[in-house]
Predict the structure of Zinc metallopeptidase.
Amino acid sequence: MTMLIYFLLIIAIPILIQLYLRRTYAEHLRIAARSGLTGREVARRLLDANGLYDVRVEEVRGKLTDHYDPTTKTVRLSSDNYYGSSIASVSVAAHEVGHAIQDAEGYAFLRFRHALVPLATFGSNASFFFILLGIVLYSANLILLGIITMAFAVLFQIVTLPVEFNASSRALNQMVSLNVIGMNEEHAARKVLNAAALTYVAATVVAVLELVRFIMVYAGMNNE
């Protein structure tokens, strides 16, 4: 029964958070920002205000596919946010600019996250193979190897949290200081940014729970 509840939780948490994000985003996509600026215009204004003239702003296909690419120094915004002038559009655009500013300043957690990418990718791909093989062969050493590799992926998720929250904090401050949003719009913008950040919190919680579960499997095997 305990395991059933556990599996229901790790399935339900991300789904519920995604539903909340999409509902919050859709709600604020219908609310026009007072400035009338599009997401592209907001991104460009914030980038220029921070001296990041070399960072490009491009449209990318998909919904909520917005991201900052540090390898090409490009802020990519989904069509709704690139052309839209809603509270949701300008908030998402400003958040991605927050990552560009982090990159330009050499923000420690962002640099650490970039350094973790190869290990995290390997951990995500290999950990379950080692653990499954360890369970089949009843080998505690293989399970331990799987736990160690999984820990890199979990660490990546944990380090992502301060990166995302810091980018959102920068976005809100920049939008207010550059009059992209008014004081009466700050609450709505914060709501959009917090909803997006919750998706990373959910992913981290699930990752940590999975790691703890396999640590308990390893401990139980050793006790036997």
